[in-house]
Amino acid sequence: MPHCGRLSCFHVRLEAAALAERARDSCGAHLAEVVQQLALRAREQRKRPARVIVYATADGRPANGEGPFDRLALGIFPV
Fold first, then answer.
1. pTM listed for this prediction
2. How many other β-carbons are positioned within 10 Å of the β-carbon of residue 75?
3. From CA 42, how far away is CA 22, in angstroms rounded?
């Protein structure tokens, strides 16, 4: 979340075609809010099925694809 001083330990990714905002980092306190915002965005703009995936990241590192063990999927939610 912007303006949150907590360490981001989660990365939330929206997997759907042609959506502008596809991923955000979050601390644990704002995780539900970020998931809800991305799911709402997908419902408003979707033309195809979408899913929201929540990843846990190590030491506040963003899930940027640096290696096979940089994140752990915690949940996959169809939208």
1. 0.71
2. 13
3. 9
